[in-house]
Design a protein that fits this description.
This protein has 714 residues and is an alpha+beta fold. It is built from 15 helices and 37 strands. Helix content is 22%, strand content 23%. The chain has a six-stranded antiparallel β-sheet, with no helix packed on it. The longest helix has 29 residues. The radius of gyration is 26 Å and the shape is globular. The termini are far apart. The model has no long low-confidence stretch (mean pLDDT 96).
């Protein structure tokens, strides 16, 4: 009849109708209490200490304005709806000055219900309450958020000089230099417009203080918050049972700072050369015929491709079995072997092993899509057996009461989540996919998702609660699939969008969901540079965006040019319910849609150039792993003392030998690049160029690239 959850669904950035807001009020602050009631409820009152408060019906709205930021797209509406309710009631309490017990009474025409008691205590910032370990004299103005229930947060300040720049914090889409900004570190699935709203799939509580010659790492997997101004950086840290902050301070150049950080959290390993070739993908490539048709067209148009990512290969129920495969259900949820399946000739995938063999003969690697969720709404079939086994055998993430956690987010809602924090479940989860690697010779996995753990009091088998385990979930997820690939003698090529501190050793990353806009193009470049600053070596994005109408030829080709000079070059398109017109991002379909006959030859030229760059990229990636100098390298790593570089935040070095300046605006015919001090050559002409501001013509088949030595592109 009536529900009140003090923490709500625990969306990191928004409240739900049944929530207490704020969850932890400051002394003297009023509280909004919300409930969700059945439609026949006629009145709700709150017993608030010695007072009685009457609740009123609340108009349902999307509490998170950013939920609609994705605009058109198959996840936007679901994201917004996840926070709404048509039967919510609320009241605002008097200012809270002391601990209060409260409960609710609901009345219908012929019945009544009373909830359990809830407790809330006001908190205040005090100068004592815990300990900051590390930081020394850099740590100022320490305070602790304390209530009758304990110490909840720490806050301290790190002084900065006026010339200092802050870069890092994981993958950030809004700007390279975060000086003067407010941000936090929590893994979150923001469907598009991440830069507008300051949210990220891949946060880290680590940053460089450039010019100051140091950096820091808050050694926690709990949520952290950061804000800076003209004089310093304020850091807030969520605490657990022990009121201690562990702070690492690293002195030295940006490379030395990054190296010290990676010594603690792990660094990337070398991946095979094939990851540097073109990756091709489309969410609606959901049959063997479609995949082969796309690869045939690549061959026929002489556009080299090195990897095909097949997203829609399974039924999206268990993500373990090819769609239309015939097999007997394993009632205990045990893994199938390759021999257990047959494939009808008229099915979606009549012979997936033969398809993979043929792709391999063409030199094309195969990566299959995954998500770390198990649908649970089915009563029969393999998906039901697997869900039952997950719960029965103790492989599910748990709620505080010991019941299985069901995804509170908008993508695969109410699905179970495997507890990948421990080896036994990582093995159980990946064993169901082992035949794909050992018998079908699949080369890697797109480890999509990973942002689905909401709840401070979830329970993980490694002993962590949600508040310190949720951010680590995508790290365990990528690790699980990397280990599966290694166990079969393959390179650990995973392709993830979510992560946290400790993700650096685990495969390849991409920037996630974005529209086909110039703004998204710029945001994605920034995302790559900030991720690289934190030790992510293998990074790419869906060139020209994956969502919405097909991009125009200019955006598509400028994005292709930039992607040819990024660690990973990939195109991808979003699911669009197989409606016409199609939204494939293949170069020939973009050409057909836009009517621009330049698209295929220019894209082909960049794909061919990319093939020539593979040895350079592989060598430079190996150097990045060995030296911690990023492969995708913001200019401050080599030119921290040059103040002019901060006026050119989208420029970067690709390894030691190339400086790249993507064309990020439409309709331009020239583009200006800043070349730091040293010897430079125009990489297209091999003509020497003096350092400083250089303007060159940029026809659609040219991106400004400058090299330290001539001949790198020839």
């Amino acid at each position: 009849m009536i529900t009140h959850r003090p923490h709500g669904i625990e969306h990191p950035y928004a409240s739900s109708p049944d929530q207490r807001v704020p969850v932890l009020p400051l002394a003297g602050e009023p509280v909004r209490l919300g409930v969700v009631a059945s439609p026949d409820v006629t009145s709700v009152v709150c017993e608030w200490g010695s007072a009685t408060l009457e609740l009123t019906p609340t108009q349902a709205t999307a509490s998170d304005a950013a939920a609609l930021a994705g605009g058109e797209g198959h996840l936007s509406e679901a994201q917004a709806k996840s926070l709404g309710s048509d039967d919510s009631w609320s009241v605002v309490t008097p200012p809270l000055t002391e601990p209060v017990r409260y409960r609710f009474h609901a009345q219908t025409a012929d019945d009544a219900e009373t909830t359990a008691w809830f407790d809330v205590a006001p908190a205040e910032w005090l100068p004592r309450g815990g300990e900051v370990r590390g930081g020394g004299d850099r740590v100022h103005d320490v305070a602790w958020l304390v209530s009758a229930e304990g110490v909840h947060r720490a806050r301290f300040r790190l002084p900065l000089q006026p010339s200092d720049h802050l870069v890092g914090f994981g993958e950030r889409y809004d700007r390279l230099d975060q000086r003067g900004q407010q941000l936090d570190a929590v893994v979150f699935e923001q469907y598009k417009a991440q830069g507008v709203h300051g949210r990220t799939y891949l946060p880290m509580p680590f940053a460089h203080v450039v010019n100051g010659g140091w950096g820091f790492h808050v050694r926690t997997s709990r949520r952290t918050w950061f804000s800076s101004d003209d004089t310093g950086l304020t850091v807030e840290v969520a605490l657990g049972d022990e009121p201690v902050v562990d702070l690492g301070i690293y002195e030295g150049s940006p490379t030395e700072v990054l190296s010290a950080f990676l010594d603690e959290v792990g660094r990337a390993e070398e991946l095979p050369d094939w990851v540097f070739r073109l990756w091709a993908s489309g969410n609606e490539w959901n049959t063997q015929d479609l995949v082969m048709a796309r690869m045939d067209t690549h061959r026929d148009l002489d556009i080299p491709v090195g990897t095909v990512v097949i997203e829609a290969w399974s039924d999206e129920e268990g993500i373990t079995i090819w769609r239309d495969a015939q097999y007997d259900v394993t009632p205990d949820g045990s893994a199938h072997k390759a021999a257990d399946f047959s494939y009808p000739a008229d099915g979606a995938w009549p012979d997936p092993r033969a398809m993979i063999d043929e792709l391999h003969r063409r030199g094309i690697k195969v990566v299959l899509w995954q998500i770390p969720l198990q649908k649970s709404e089915f009563d029969s079939g393999q998906v039901a057996a697997d869900a039952a086994a997950m719960v029965r055998e103790g492989h599910a993430v748990l709620e505080a009461d010991g019941s299985a956690y069901h995804n509170r987010g908008w993508w695969f809602p109410k699905a179970l989540m495997p507890d990948l924090s421990v080896q036994r479940t990582r093995d159980w989860w990946t064993e169901k996919r082992r035949y794909l690697v050992e018998d079908f010779d699949v080369d890697g996995f797109k480890t999509d998702g990973g942002e689905h753990a909401w709840g401070h009091d979830l329970r993980y088998a490694d002993g962590r609660r949600g508040d310190d385990g949720n951010n680590l979930f995508p790290v365990h997820y990528a690790r699980a699939f990397g280990d599966l690939l290694r166990s079969a003698g393959k390179a650990p090529v995973t392709f993830s969008r979510a992560g946290f501190t400790g993700s650096q050793p685990h495969g390849v990353f991409w920037a996630g969901d974005e529209d086909s806009t110039w703004e998204a193009f710029r945001s994605s470049i920034t995302a790559g540079l900030t991720a690289a600053s934190c030790g992510i070596v293998y990074w790419g994005w869906d060139l020209a965006g994956f969502s919405g109408p097909v991009p125009d030829a200019e955006l598509y080709l400028r994005a292709a040019a930039a992607s040819a000079f990024l660690p990973i070059m990939q195109y991808h398109s979003e699911f669009n319910h197989h409606q016409l017109p199609l939204r494939d991002r293949t170069p020939w379909f973009v050409a057909e849609t836009t009517g621009d006959d330049r698209v295929v030859p220019v894209f082909r030229a960049y794909a061919v150039l990319r093939e020539k760059l593979v040895p350079y990229l592989a060598a430079q990636a190996a150097r990045a792993v060995a030296t911690d100098r990023p492969l995708l390298r913001p200019l401050f790593f080599d030119h921290a003392d040059d103040p002019e570089i901060w006026n050119h935040p989208y420029q970067y070095q690709l390894g030691d030998g190339l400086l790249v300046n993507p064309v990020l605006e439409p309709g331009v015919t020239t583009w200006t690049t800043y070349l730091p001090e040293g010897i430079w050559y125009d990489a297209w002409t091999d003509e020497p160029v003096e350092s400083g501001l250089v303007t060159r013509d940029v026809p659609i088949d040219i991106i400004p690239v400058y090299s330290r030595t001539p001949g790198l592109l020839h």
